[in-house]
Automatic annotation (TrEMBL), chain A:
Main location, first listed in the record: membrane
Coiled coil segments of this chain: none
Membrane-protein topology: Multi-pass membrane protein
GO cellular component: plasma membrane
Residue ranges of the TM segments: 16-38, 44-62, 120-143, 150-168, 200-224, 245-266, 322-342
Gene Ontology terms for molecular function: branched-chain amino acid transmembrane transporter activity
Keywords on record: Cell membrane, Membrane, Transmembrane, Transmembrane helix
Protein name (record): Urea ABC transporter permease subunit UrtC
Compartment(s): Cell membrane
InterPro entries in UniProt: ABC_transp_permease (IPR001851), ABC_transptr_urea_perm_UrtC (IPR017778), LivM-like (IPR043428)
Highest taxon in the source lineage: Bacteria
Native species: Methylopila turkensis
UniProtKB/TrEMBL annotation, chain B:
Membrane-spanning ranges: 248-271, 278-297, 303-323, 335-357, 384-404, 437-458, 470-490, 502-522
Protein name: ABC transporter permease
An annotated GO BP: amino acid transport
Native source species: Methylopila turkensis
GO annotations of cellular component type: plasma membrane
Lineage: Bacteria, Pseudomonadati, Pseudomonadota, Alphaproteobacteria, Hyphomicrobiales
TrEMBL record, chain C:
Domain of life: Bacteria
CDD domains registered for this protein in UniProt: ABC_Mj1267_LivG_branched (cd03219)
GO cellular component: plasma membrane
One Pfam family hit: ABC_tran
Protein's UniProt keywords contain Transport: yes
Occurrences of domain ABC transporter (ranges): 5-236
Protein name per the record: ABC transporter ATP-binding protein
PANTHER family hit by this protein: CONSERVED COMPONENT OF ABC TRANSPORTER FOR NATURAL AMINO ACIDS-RELATED, HIGH-AFFINITY BRANCHED-CHAIN AMINO ACID TRANSPORT ATP-BINDING PROTEIN
Alphabetically ordered keywords of this record: ATP-binding, Nucleotide-binding, Transport
UniProtKB/TrEMBL annotation, chain D:
PROSITE patterns: TAT (PS51318)
Protein name, as recorded: Urea ABC transporter substrate-binding protein
Signal peptide: 1-25
A Pfam cross-reference name: Peripla_BP_5
Keyword field: Signal
Length: 366, 535, 236, 415
């Protein structure tokens, strides 16, 4: 892509990044220590952190390696489902209450093989392991046969759609359309305990902060530069002796694991996991968040996710009719005026609308 | 089913026996019964069916009118009971003009509805004015022939003037004798039934294996076995035809939904996520055409689908051109941004339609020529609306092919698809070609919407159902080849229909999508890739 | 002396189109070989197959008389010392000039490596631009940057696809000086180019390809005199 | 980090940090309504997404009921204000908005959800906040939360009577059953209970067949072929128990009619089928198919006349984008729900949930269905009448059968 506009001054980028990271850290402190916050707000902050983490994970592969996944909801869902299974097992173990899912699935008890997930470390390892394994297998096969660009996007979309159809089936055995709900306790504490919401939200914000810093360090290092090189010209990089398959696979798996962590943190805060998170629309929306904030800057993904979801939360309750128009307008606006996201505002000159592009052979790259 | 029919038949026969001596129908009594509770309505229907064979032609006509009125709820049980008609109410018993048209209409219970339908058909068989009417009545009776008195058909055949129809009536009468005490009549009934074989007749004929004669009478046994074998063979063929037809009809929908996408994607490498919404717009424009015709030229209403074709194409192509000129054109170097922008456009269109028109399913008049279907053989039904979609898809395919191969625009499109830079150097206005191609692709999507009107629900959400499927078809076929899209649609449609009865609809979809994903790992460029140097 | 690149009975097809048809040729260490021919002769395809971007249908290519390039991946080929500059300048535009060259060098960046990068930048005349983003460079500078990315790793076989396309006369002059400087007994240089004057200044020998086959092999002066070559270039 | 102006860096950082933290500390967007002034009721019905056509109209019915109550002087000296939202057919968003309405808007009760899954996602929210959710749909039963009022019927008190009718001599003496449903908990639970019921009646397992399709499935060709084959097989009269939902209903009915099957051949009992599903269909070929609800538009009685007129007037007045001459059961259930809540609040003299809940015992209301619906202290279920409707030519349902009284609701099925 001969997209010079993509290149921001580094100083500006650094400033934005530090600002966003500081804001996340500050929010974590406020959520954890400020007593006057309503549970609702705490919960919103925690959810926004999860969405931001999810957007961050997509930014790693789309923004840096130029691989657009329209199926990232799959990894988010893996994290969510595993923690859901853990919470159900945990609820049975601590309260003895039979969850709804047992009854409407027509079971006698939760399936035996869920048993080990009662331990949180096992669940954590399982969530990360499964998302890693799925990402590895799919990524290895796809990258090896050099499926890329728009094709990769379409195939990942089909993949998440397949997963959604599967999970909607009752016979698949994860609660079908209802999914899992009715979680009672977490780490032994009932969900109603005021500290639980705060703890979850603060943890999410801290994990987001840690992920931001870690990804930043990784991306300004050699690995990050090689990823950018892959995005700019993969053939060139390969003919310089780099196995781009490994690079892409590495960042793809990393991104999948981050998305799974986001799901892991998200589900206890909303109290339900069902196949809806596997809908192609959600996965598309993750890309929208990144695009609105600005790709390939980490901070942009966080800003985009927080902005879009905060607007969504407030508008869908106060002006439900308006919300879809606002979102559509925002995306079109960004696509036309800030081709690289709202972070471009810093260097925006009033040309109003970008001029028509001229397509060159070989330009068909993200 | 059979037990129910037998019971009904028993009642019919019993009453037929009682009513046999009377040559005229006791109109007043029957009307009173028809205005009674469910039980007495059953008796009214039985009396009508039993009586028509011996009644006068006038009485038979009255019986047809009365049972029709009961079915259509134009029978008003006031005092006296009348039949409401647009020309004015008539007395239910005498059919003389009546003054009042008050009274409630009894609602046919599930059980009584088929009885009255039978009564109406039997009466029409005797009193129908045209041969067509009587033929239709006979077809209606065919399925329930076993529950009717055999002499009904004999009498009807006697009275029938048309030789062909007379033959048919006798045939049906023969088939009705499957449970006749006379073995030879049973055998001829078996032979008769085995000719027009469907699953119901298999049940009937196979049921004769429990007949005592099956064990004793060799000829009867042979007839039953031969009948069963012949029906089973025909069923196998008709099942295969059904599967083919279903697959073809699904494939035609897939093709319609993805043809436009294939052109746009192939030419510009642009993913148009608003393609489904173009389909939706096409359907809404079709609706608008229908409403305009309804107001302006009601005579043409039956042909609104045909009238709408050019209008729908031009309207959606116009929207496509507008979208290309205002948005897509500015994003050509960033295909993934186009993806998001067109997604936003689709969101916008859906919500504009939702707010502007509403969320309800649109009501389409089903044209008389497209309603229902025709039982071709055995269990194989050709439904007209699906046939319309298949024919429409085939016509679209031919026309698109002609446009691409035989017109200057098509030549330009192919040139730009293959080498944009070179085409530009040769003086082709690539920008203009892009716009026209985008218009063509959008117009095709609009036509898909039109073809879907008689099959699917038309509402603002309908477009989203097609996105994943149509993308997979385009990618599987190989970008930029119409032939690939056709083959991929046919393959996906057929495989889906083959798997569905085995593992269910969800699993079929899942398996097909996974197969496509796996196939694309093996051949990332699809079935019919335009090969060239790797960039 | 061993042969650097040995092409044996190579055939490459794209669909029904045969880009290279039963081609055999040998390129020695120490020489600068130019591959010329009209459009569609198979020049770039030849480089593609040697560097592993495209796959051969039949035949094989041996590097250093040991490594069979037709079986190796692009990265393996590059790491073994066969490197290539593309027709269209391919640099990583979102990275700095220095980053680009460091990626070309590969491995850990220590003091020795840094020095080598500096020296290479010096050679191609981009030392002053080291901190700029590659996307901001002029066309000619991008060409040199790409050459720098390729040569910094001291390749044994260096392939240059149209290194002076779109350059001014002065830039072309500098480029040919650069290529002459890169000539070494341990290295084979393959140049694909249309500019005949340029080819004459840098090449030891030329191979003329036509419709995927070798039409002529020898010095540039003799090529200019060869009737068949003239025919192919001018006859149609 | 390269060179840049230190002061502008600090300012940007501080600005962004404050921007992120501000929403957490800022005053609520929607002010608390706990003080005097109107009492708020929240609606959780989607006006966009797949459920929009069905759920959207409920927002207006709730407002209409509130207007009626306000016109009669309000409740406990307050007028009612109905707060609507758009969960966009997105299940987690129901929970999200529910939480917001309870915690921030401080609504006195929630009215909402159509699909079971949306209810299940709101359930933990109302339980954690001790709120009240009035759920206006018939559902799979087997749930009994003190925070949910189940305004409509569980299967044991609605579906089983309808199936009984089909199996009786008054019906068609059905012996065999083809169950086709959307693949989720409501159809599966209904079918599970039906199978248990049939087993208890000594019906063989070979007499039924079950198929499930995904949500918004539309290509029913193959399945209708299967139904034809199943119906023609020996063993007695076959009926179809249809539990597909949403847009699959009209798609199924159209294909069924097109393949030439009429209600006199194989009747369909559409358990989720309402008038709105028939919009746009040529119902002349579907006459006689059945549905089963606690209200049908053709119900007799003054209460229904009054309700239909109010709805028609309301649509005319507000320009709501729905048909003014179509009323479906969940609309009436929502209408009932608002009135039941108002009666309970009046009886309790308070809007506090525990007080209101205590007042449920012995409430009764003249439902537009013509029955006097009622609640007991036993559970939060409402006892209602049962109708079996029969499709007519004009895209509506005629009342074919109705229960003599209001059967006592059975939350937990025995099957």
């Amino acid at each position: 892509m001969t997209d010079k506009a993509h290149i921001l001054s580094r100083a500006f980028e650094d400033r934005i990044f530090v600002g966003v990271a500081a804001a996340v850290a500050l929010a974590a402190v406020v959520v954890a220590l400020f007593p006057g916050l309503s549970g609702y707000r705490v919960n919103i902050a925690g959810q926004l952190a999860c969405f931001a983490l999810l957007a961050l994970s997509l930014d790693l592969i789309w923004g840096y390696a130029g691989i657009l996944s329209l199926g990232h909801g799959l990894f988010f869902a893996i994290g969510g489902y595993v923690i859901g299974m853990h919470l159900l097992e945990h609820a049975v173990a601590t309260t003895g209450v039979t969850p709804d899912i047992v009854q409407f699935m027509g079971w006698k008890a939760l399936p035996d093989w869920w048993g080990p997930l009662e331990s949180f470390p096992v669940a954590l390892v399982a969530a990360l392991g499964v998302s890693f394994a799925v990402a590895f297998v799919f990524g290895w096969v796809s990258f090896r046969s050099r499926v890329g660009g728009v094709y990769f996007a379409i195939i990942t979309q089909a993949l998440v759609y397949v997963a959604m159809l599967l999970m909607f089936r009752n016979d698949t055995g994860f609660g079908g359309n209802n999914g899992m709900t009715g979680f009672q306790t977490i780490f032994g504490a009932p969900f109603q305990t005021p500290g639980v919401a705060k703890g979850l939200a603060a943890t999410s914000l801290l994990v987001l902060f840690a992920a931001l810093v870690a990804c930043r360090l990784l991306m300004i290092g050699r690995f990050g530069r090689l990823l950018v090189a892959t995005r700019d010209d993969e053939t060139r990089l390969r003919s310089l002796g780099y196995e781009t398959l490994r690079l892409k696979l590495g960042v793809w798996c990393l991104s999948a694991v981050l998305a799974a962590i986001a799901g892991l943190l998200y589900v206890p805060q909303v109290g339900i996991i069902n196949p809806r998170v596997l809908s192609p629309e959600l996965s598309l929306e993750i890309a929208v968040w990144c695009a609105i904030g600005g790709r390939g800057r980490l901070a942009g993904a966080v800003i985009g996710a927080v902005l879009v979801n905060a607007i969504k939360f407030s508008l869908s309750a106060t002006m439900p009719e308006l919300w879809p128009f606002v979102l559509a307008g925002l995306v079109i606006l960004v696509a036309l005026i800030f081709p690289n996201g709202l972070l471009d505002i810093g260097r925006w000159r009033p040309t109003w609308i970008s001029r028509p592009d001229v397509l060159q052979p070989g330009d068909a790259k993200p | 089913m059979t037990r129910f029919i037998r019971k009904a038949a028993a009642i019919v026969l019993a009453i037929a026996f009682m009513a046999a001596p009377a040559l005229a129908l006791d109109r007043a009594a029957i009307v009173a019964q028809a205005c009674g509770g469910p039980g007495s309505m059953t008796e009214a229907a039985a009396a009508l069916t039993a009586g028509v064979a011996t009644a006068s032609k006038d009485d038979a006509a009255w019986a047809a009118t009365l049972s029709g009125a009961a079915i259509e709820r134009t029978l008003k049980c006031g005092s006296p009971p009348v039949i409401a008609a647009p020309a004015g109410a008539r007395d239910a018993a005498t059919l003389a003009p009546a003054t009042s048209a008050d009274g409630t209409s009894p609602l046919l219970s599930l059980k009584n509805r088929p009885l009255f339908e039978t009564a109406r058909a039997a009466a029409t068989l005797f009193s129908g004015v045209t041969q067509g009417e009587r033929g239709a009545a006979l077809s209606a009776l065919e399925r329930r022939a076993g529950s009717l008195p055999p002499e009904l058909f004999e009498k009807a055949a006697d009275a029938e003037t048309d030789v062909g129809l007379k033959e048919r009536i006798l045939g049906v009468g023969q088939a009705a004798l499957l449970n006749s005490p006379d073995v030879s009549k049973r055998i001829s009934a078996i032979e008769r039934i085995s000719v027009s074989a469907d699953r119901r007749s298999l049940t009937q004929v196979a049921g004769l294996k429990t007949d005592p004669a099956y064990a004793t009478d060799q000829a009867f046994k042979a007839a039953v076995d031969a009948g069963v074998a012949s029906i089973e063979r025909r069923l196998q063929i008709s099942n295969a035809l059904n599967t083919l037809y279903n697959g073809l009809s699904f494939a035609s929908i897939l093709f319609m939904a993805s043809a436009g996408l294939a052109i746009i994607f192939g030419l510009m490498g642009v993913i148009n996520l608003a393609q489904g919404e173009f389909i939706m717009i096409g359907a809404y424009v079709t609706y608008a055409v229908q409403e305009v015709l309804r107001a302006a030229a009601p005579d043409l209403l039956d042909w609104y689908l045909i009238v709408a074709i050019p209008i729908v194409f031009l309207a959606t192509a116009g929207v496509g051109v507008f979208l290309e000129a205002t948005l897509v054109r500015r994003l050509y170097t960033r295909p993934l941004m186009t993806l998001l922008a067109t997604w936003a456009v689709s969101l916008l269109i859906v919500n504009l339609v939702r707010v502007g028109v509403g969320t309800q399913n649109l009501q389409f008049v089903t044209p008389s020529w497209m309603s229902g279907g025709h039982l071709l053989m055995g269990d194989f039904i050709v439904t007209w609306n699906r046939l319309f979609a298949i024919v429409f898809a085939a016509a679209t395919l031919v026309l698109t092919w002609v446009v691409l191969k035989r017109t200057p625009l098509g030549l330009n499109i192919r040139a730009v698809t293959q080498n944009r830079a070179m085409a530009g150097c040769l003086g082709i206005a690539t920008r203009r070609v892009d716009m026209m191609a985008f218009g063509l692709g959008s117009g095709l999507a609009g036509l898909a919407g039109l073809a879907l009107c008689p099959i699917y629900n038309v509402n603002p959400q309908m477009g989203s159902n097609f996105i994943v499927d149509s993308f997979m078809v385009v990618v599987l076929g190989g970008v930029g080849t119409l032939a690939g899209t056709v083959i991929a649609s046919l393959g996906v449609g057929q495989i889906n229909v083959l798997i569905e009865p085995l593992y269910g609809a969800v699993a079929a979809k899942v398996i097909v999508l996974l197969m496509i994903i796996a196939f694309l790992q093996w051949r990332p460029d699809g079935l019919f890739a335009v090969k060239g140097r790797r960039k | 002396m061993t042969v650097a690149i040995l092409v044996e009975a190579l055939t490459v097809e794209f669909g029904r189109f045969r880009a290279i048809d039963d081609l055999s040729l040998a390129i020695d260490y120490g020489e600068v070989r130019a591959v010329i021919g009209p459009n569609g002769a198979g020049k770039t395809t030849l480089l593609d197959v040697i560097s592993g971007v495209s796959r051969a249908k039949t035949g094989r290519i041996l590097f250093d008389e040991k490594l069979e390039l037709t079986r190796a991946s692009e990265a393996q080929i590059a790491r073994s010392g066969v490197r290539r500059k593309f027709q269209k300048p391919s640099v990583f535009e979102a990275l700095t000039v220095r980053d680009n060259v460091e990626i070309g060098l590969g491995g850990a960046i220590d003091a020795v490596a840094r020095e080598r990068v500096d020296k290479t930048l010096e050679t191609v005349g981009l030392a002053a631009e080291a901190g700029r983003l590659a996307g901001e460079l002029a066309h000619g500078q991008k060409q040199w940057l790409e050459i720098a990315m390729v040569v910094v790793s001291e390749p044994k076989v260096l392939m240059l696809d149209e290194p002076v396309a779109g350059l001014t006369d002065e830039e072309t002059e500098r480029t040919s000086a650069l290529i002459r400087a890169l000539k070494s007994p341990e290295r084979a240089v393959i140049v694909v180019e249309h500019d005949m004057d340029f080819v004459e200044t840098v090449a030891d020998r030329v191979t003329v390809l036509h419709e995927g086959r070798t039409l002529f092999e020898g010095s540039m002066a003799r090529a200019r005199a060869d009737a068949r070559v003239v025919d192919v270039y001018l006859g149609r | 980090m390269s060179k840049f102006d230190r002061r502008s860096f600090l300012m940007t950082t501080a600005g962004l940090a404050a921007g992120a933290a501000l929403p957490l500390a800022a005053p609520p967007l929607i002010r608390s309504a706990r003080a005097a002034g109107p009492v708020k009721l929240g609606c959780l019905f989607s006006s966009s997404g797949t459920m929009a056509n069905l759920e959207g109209r409920m927002n207006f019915v709730a407002k209409m009921a509130a207007d009626e109550i306000n016109a009669a002087g309000g409740v406990n000296g307050s007028t009612i204000e109905v707060v609507t939202s758009d969960p966009a057919s997105d299940w987690p968003l129901y929970a999200q908005i529910g939480r917001q309405m309870l915690a921030e808007t401080k609504v006195a009760a929630l009215f909402g959800c159509w699909t079971s899954v949306s209810r299940k996602s709101v359930l933990p929210v109302v339980e954690q906040n001790d709120g009240l959710l009035f759920y206006p749909l018939h559902f799979e039963g087997d749930e009994n939360s003190k925070n949910v009022v189940y305004v409509n019927s569980p299967p044991a008190s609605s579906v089983l009577p309808a199936v009984d009718y089909l199996m009786s001599p008054d019906g068609v003496e059905a012996k065999r059953f083809f169950m086709i449903g959307s693949d989720y908990v409501w159809p599966r639970t209904i079918n599970k209970q039906l199978k248990g019921y049939w087993k208890s009646k000594g019906i063989e397992e070979s007499a039924w067949k079950e198929e499930y399709v995904p949500f918004s499935f539309s290509n029913f060709q193959t399945i209708v072929n299967q139904i034809r084959a199943f119906a023609d097989a020996p063993g007695g009269k076959c009926v179809v128990v249809l539990t597909v939902v949403g847009s699959s209903i009209p798609d199924f009915m159209r294909e069924f009619a097109n393949q030439g099957i009429s209600s006199s051949d194989v009747p369909v009992l559409g358990l989720d089928m309402v008038e709105a599903d028939l919009e746009g269909l040529d119902t002349a070929k579907m006459v006689g198919h059945l549905n089963c609800w606690a209200y049908l538009q053709q119900a007799k009685g003054d209460a229904n006349v009054k309700f239909l007129k109010s709805w028609s007037d309301y649509v005319t007045k507000t320009g709501a984008p729905f048909k003014k001459d179509v009323a479906i059961d969940p609309m009436v259930s929502t209408y009932d729900a608002v009135h039941l809540w108002a009666m309970a609040a009046k009886k309790a003299g308070s809007f506090d949930v525990p007080e209101v809940r205590k007042a449920f015992d012995g409430l009764s209301f003249d439902c537009p269905s013509g029955y006097k619906i009622g609640m007991t202290a036993e559970n939060n279920y409402v006892s209602r009448g049962v109708f079996i409707g029969s499709v007519n030519e004009t895209q509506g349902f005629d009342v074919l059968w109705q229960s003599p009284d209001t059967p006592k609701p059975v939350p937990m099925s025995q099957y």
